[in-house]
Automatic annotation (TrEMBL), chain A:
<dbReference type="InterPro" id="IPR040582">
    <property type="entry name" value="OB_MalK-like"/>
</dbReference>
<dbReference type="GO" id="GO:0005524">
    <property type="term" value="F:ATP binding"/>
</dbReference>
<protein>
    <submittedName>
        <fullName>Maltose ABC transporter ATP-binding protein /trehalose ABC transporter ATP-binding protein /sucrose ABC transporter ATP-binding protein</fullName>
    </submittedName>
</protein>
<dbReference type="InterPro" id="IPR017871">
    <property type="entry name" value="ABC_transporter-like_CS"/>
</dbReference>
<dbReference type="InterPro" id="IPR008995">
    <property type="entry name" value="Mo/tungstate-bd_C_term_dom"/>
</dbReference>
<dbReference type="Pfam" id="PF17912">
    <property type="entry name" value="OB_MalK"/>
</dbReference>
<dbReference type="GO" id="GO:1990060">
    <property type="term" value="C:maltose transport complex"/>
</dbReference>
<dbReference type="InterPro" id="IPR012340">
    <property type="entry name" value="NA-bd_OB-fold"/>
</dbReference>
<feature type="region of interest" description="Disordered">
    <location>
        <begin position="370"/>
        <end position="412"/>
    </location>
</feature>
TrEMBL record, chain B:
<dbReference type="InterPro" id="IPR035906">
    <property type="entry name" value="MetI-like_sf"/>
</dbReference>
<dbReference type="Pfam" id="PF00528">
    <property type="entry name" value="BPD_transp_1"/>
</dbReference>
<feature type="domain" description="ABC transmembrane type-1">
    <location>
        <begin position="106"/>
        <end position="322"/>
    </location>
</feature>
<feature type="transmembrane region" description="Helical">
    <location>
        <begin position="53"/>
        <end position="72"/>
    </location>
</feature>
<keyword id="KW-0472">Membrane</keyword>
<dbReference type="InterPro" id="IPR050809">
    <property type="entry name" value="UgpAE/MalFG_permease"/>
</dbReference>
<feature type="transmembrane region" description="Helical">
    <location>
        <begin position="110"/>
        <end position="131"/>
    </location>
</feature>
<dbReference type="GO" id="GO:0055085">
    <property type="term" value="P:transmembrane transport"/>
</dbReference>
<dbReference type="GO" id="GO:0005886">
    <property type="term" value="C:plasma membrane"/>
</dbReference>
Amino acid sequence: MADLKLEGVAKSYGDVQVLSDIDLTIASGEFIVFVGPSGCGKSTLLRMIAGLERISGGTLQIDGQRMNDIPPSQRGIAMVFQSYALYPHMTVRDNMAFALKIAGQSRDQIREATDRAGKMLQLTPYLDRLPKALSGGQRQRVAIGRAIVRDPKVYLFDEPLSNLDAALRVATRIEIAQLKASMPDRTMIYVTHDQTEAMTLADRIVVLAGGGIAQVGAPLELYERPVNEFVAQFIGSPAMNLLPGKVTAVGDMTTVALDGGGVAQVAIPTREGDQGMAVNLGVRPEDMRETDGDAIFEGQVDLTEALGEVTLLYFGTNQDSVPVIAKLPGIHTGLNGKTVRLTADPHALHLFHDGQSLLYRDGADLPPYRPRTTAAAGSVGGADGAASMPGRSDTGDDRIEGGTIKPEGPAR
Amino acid sequence: MELFWLAISTIAIGVFGCVAWFWGSNMVLDTIYPPKGPNAGDNIRKANQIRPWLFLGPAILFLTMYLVYPVIDSLWRSLHNSTGSRFVGVDNYTWLLGDGKFRESMRNNMLWLLVVPALSTLFGLIAAQLTDRIRWGNIGKSLIFMPMAISFVGAGVIWKFIYEFRAEGETQIGLLNWIVTRLGGDPQIWLTLIPWNNFFLMIVLVWIQTGFAMVILSAALRGIPEETIEAAILDGASPLQVFMKIKVPQIMGTIAVVWTTITIVVLKVFDIVFVMTNGQWGTQVLANLMYDWMFRGSPDYGRGSAIAIVLMILVTPIMVWNIRNARKEVR
């Protein structure tokens, strides 16, 4: 049970400012994931919370107590490293027991704690082995066990799955999720660059970019209501397409004429005076679908990638510009070289002006986010909220277009 | 000046000779087995079988001349009388067992063996750890390493001055006696103080070898994964605990290599004893004893060689273990 409060936290190495003005409150029992591109400072932020890096500015509080100058071992935290960081000369049991021995616990207490952690992580048969005699997944479990035996208030994970192969990564990810579920009052902070881990594990995701926090929110909130182009493109794979255009009609529904020739209806309100404003229309590859009617994008398919479950269409790969990608559900053959007309649900579209989402331009006083589900009921806003609330109202007929039911909504 | 030109031409001939040998011999080989024509593949294969020997040849020749032959000759001499004219079997060895000076040397060598590698490694380890994180650490390291560049004879002379004794009434010019008299004590003739004089000699070698141990161990310490240290800090370990329980165990292999390397140097110790006490006052060691019998007074090649063989037998197993350990470290 511990809440964390970061106020104006900054980190600089000499003159180089790595992080600045980090304000973040983490509630007790929350699972928070830090994501961001390489070098964004996410690991540094975690290490500052751990006490392995000095905090250059601002304050860090855990449970209301200022922690800036408290040594790492007294902060009530435990950390799991990407490289496992097991002590190579100690057995699994000794690795887990080390902190307890240092703390001067009795032999019986230590034995009981390590036995319990071993059982919890299915390490019992390996307790007397050295780390070098374990597989990567087992090593990472030992590292987690080393954290568990200390029963910390806050768990810190620094890319714990990055050294594992794909199958093991999924398995261990699920183990971590179960571990969290079994300890609902323990706070966990998890750093990763893998958005699948972020989306699946987090209660809230903190997207870090350019030395600061770009957006904090529930995984689906970041997916559906990104605050700027960076978050929009960082969350979701393949990245959101950004199509330049101009606003031609304002109102609760905005009409955008795209430079590529298409016209889009977007369920984001605009005001008088926005007429003619240059915007980027954001559309996720998975929200695009083929149409015979008005298209927001029309182009010749350069390349297809058939994954069975979905088919990816690439447009404009041989031009200098960023290619446009569409992800169509199911199998589509013979599209190479063909011209395809694509459209998308008005509620699944995003508008950005100068990189910032128009959804947020009146400040962040949006109503609380609730995910848009394929079953329409109970979604954000609704008819009455349309004027003040530029969110996505979602009605059942949105999902039915030309007699075809869209198999997957944008929120899954 | 004549000497200078002689030296220069020797170097020139040596360097030129080496180049000429490798270039010339390889050319001859390629002429005999040209890497072209109808048998090119076969020729290249044959030439490649011979080529390593062209490169190794000179080294093998000199090693045989200066290492293998002396060992065999020593073995032969150790089984013969003082001039090598009569076969005496193991007489020289049985004599050794009964000789007081030999027993003293063995005892002293064992003492050296215990004290010097232990202290050198310990001081080296401490120096490596302490100099690693301070700003002037590199200067400190250079200073500690510097004695390595001094010859054992030079070190012996330097330390002889430190232990220097002047008769009552004269100014004490030895550093140690100067300190002792400053503190109100009586000056001592340190090098004749049995049994402490042995340790005064050992300190010289410790002084030299600490730098070696420090450099190797410092590199090993830097090779320890930083995360294991951070994990230990998070686990609540104090700096001393991190050092003793996390760092040292992880560099145990390197410590063993350093320890055994110094052990071999210690077993062969000669110069320091030769310069400082020449084995008097109970400080005799095997190498110096061998030198005494071999070249001093009326030389006895038989007994001298027997001591040499004993020394070699003592060094060999440590040497083998050392090389194995070093190889393991590389892996």
